[in-house]
Amino acid sequence: MIFSAILKGARSRGGLDDRNDDSTVWYKTIVPEYRRLASNSLYPESKVGFMYRTLAVNPGVFLPWIKQKPEARGVRFIRREIESIPDAKRLAPCDVVVHASGLGASYLANDKNVVPVRGQTMFVETDFDEMAMVQGSHYTYVIPRMFTRGAIVGGVSQEGNLDTAVDEKLKPDIVRRVRQLAEGRLDEIDPQKHSTRDIVAFRPGRKGGYRLEAEGDVVHAYGFGWLGYVYSFGAALEVLRLVERKSCL
């Protein structure tokens, strides 16, 4: 059971500026209250827009909570550097290995389709409590971060860029796009005053989409890119199904 202290319901408004319909919005039949927006309600430069109810998650709260669940059942976490999947088998002997190493799959699974996708965001202090996102020619969003009185604003999606430093030149552009997205509600944000933290991270992308399959006594689950939290529970259920099937053979 997922408690409201871990996930928070939020209204989300989205837009696409590189296509004329929502046929590629795969979740439109899943999320509650999904509806297309009229042309006079679209974000600037968007060709199609939609609104729906969804969930917002704060990783700083969610990850410790979800780690605690298996620990309560006796699972022990071991942090160790390994050079191969057989190393993992030797470290913790088992019948089936679940391989979910993210970007490490390019090495551990010799998967040349795995590619890092650089993202740069800012945490800003704001009471903005809706999720807002435009995708297509750019990647702009505001995601409230529960328990923080702030939000994550961004961003960029730079495939293959491995620069870990904050690109100061990007910040004014991100702020400009976010202000436009929030339609006046974030106009007073000054990155020099309100940004409490710059964030640079690398999403585990994969050309051709994620990999979720069994290979011998290994179940692979990686390459989810920026959709890791979105897919996490569904991916976990499929991993469980694959593990149980392998265990019965």
From TrEMBL:
Keywords, sorted A to Z: FAD, Flavoprotein, Oxidoreductase
Domain FAD dependent oxidoreductase: from-to ranges: 42-239
Single GO term (MF): FAD binding
GO cellular component: cytoplasm
A Pfam family recorded for this sequence: DAO
SUPFAM superfamilies (alphabetical): Nucleotide-binding domain
InterPro entries assigned to the protein according to its UniProt record, in alphabetical order: DAO (IPR023209), FAD-dep_OxRdtase (IPR006076)
Example of a GO biological process term: D-amino acid catabolic process
Cofactor annotation: FAD
Assigned protein family: Belongs to the DAMOX/DASOX family.
Protein name per the record: FAD dependent oxidoreductase domain-containing protein
